[in-house]
């Protein structure tokens, strides 16, 4: 049996976190191990749960997703980070952090699941479908 991909969701909007959790629950290959409301909490939970993948919103209070990603990639390089945002204009800044992928919120569910299942590949999508 294939081991499930352990995912941490980091987004300051409760509804976004809940929506991602519901979407990810449709995949038997994915297990959501935690949720963070800001970048600082994400760092704490990465240390605690050692997820395989972090789905990280870019704009969050306390510590934004870009800086949290830089810290994660420095401290835990084996943890894959996929940055999520509503704005394609953040792509260059997002990938400069060392993130493993970049997706626009609202992308098709199959893009999100592909990015989680194959986090070593970059899944950058410029436009909303």
Describe the structure in your own words:
The model has no long low-confidence stretch (mean pLDDT 89). This protein has helices at 14-24, 39-49, 65-75, 91-96, 109-117, and strands at 5-10, 30-36, 53-57, 80-85, 101-104. With 129 residues, the chain is α/β, with parallel strands linked by helices. A 5-stranded parallel sheet has the order 2-1-3-4-5, with helices on both faces. The chain has 5 helices and 5 strands. Helix 2 (39-49) packs parallel to helix 3. 37% of the residues lie in helices and 22% in strands. The chain is globular. The protein has one domain: Response regulator (Rossmann fold).
Helices and strands in order:
Blueprint: E1 5-10, H1 14-24, E2 30-36, H2 39-49, E3 53-57, H3 65-75, E4 80-85, H4 91-96, E5 101-104, H5 109-117
Parallel strand pairs: 1-2, 1-3, 3-4, 4-5
């Amino acid at each position: 049996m294939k081991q499930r991909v352990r995912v941490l969701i980091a987004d300051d909007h409760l509804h976004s976190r809940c929506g991602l959790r519901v979407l990810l629950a449709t995949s038997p290959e994915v297990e959501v191990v935690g949720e963070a409301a800001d970048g600082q909490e994400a760092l704490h939970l990465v240390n605690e749960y050692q997820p395989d993948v972090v789905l990280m919103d870019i704009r969050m209070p306390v510590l934004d997703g870009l800086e949290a990603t830089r810290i994660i990639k420095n401290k835990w390089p084996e943890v894959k980070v996929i940055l999520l945002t509503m704005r394609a204009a953040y792509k260059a800044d997002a990938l400069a952090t060392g993130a493993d992928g970049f997706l626009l919120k609202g992308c098709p569910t199959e893009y999100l699941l592909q990015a989680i299942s194959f986090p070593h590949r970059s899944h950058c999508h410029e436009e909303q479908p």
